[in-house]
Write a structure and sequence with these properties.
Blueprint (H helix, E strand, L loop, with lengths): L1 E6 L2 E8 L7 E9 L5 E16 L7 E6 L2 E2 L9 E4 H7 L1
Antiparallel strand pairs: 1-2, 3-4, 3-7, 4-5, 5-6
Length: about 90
Amino acid sequence: MKTKMTGPAHHKERYMTHKYKVGDYVLIDKIFRNKRQGCYELIPDKVVKIVKVQDTVTFGPAYSIEIDGEVNIACYWEDDIKCLANMVISEN
């Protein structure tokens, strides 16, 4: 999916490409825990669902994910997501 980015921070139009889309199931290996200072904890690989994709002007698209029926309070960057879950299933 491509999103047209315009505005004061963009002197020229640019198109941001999203690696994942809403409804995709992806694999993660860390989860945000809202503790005293908030941090990510490593977990065994887990399949989660992308529920929202938001363009940012910093690190690319931010992905909101649903884990066990609840939307995580932190967004994930593409570097935080290992791959599409169906890629793992098709390799086995």
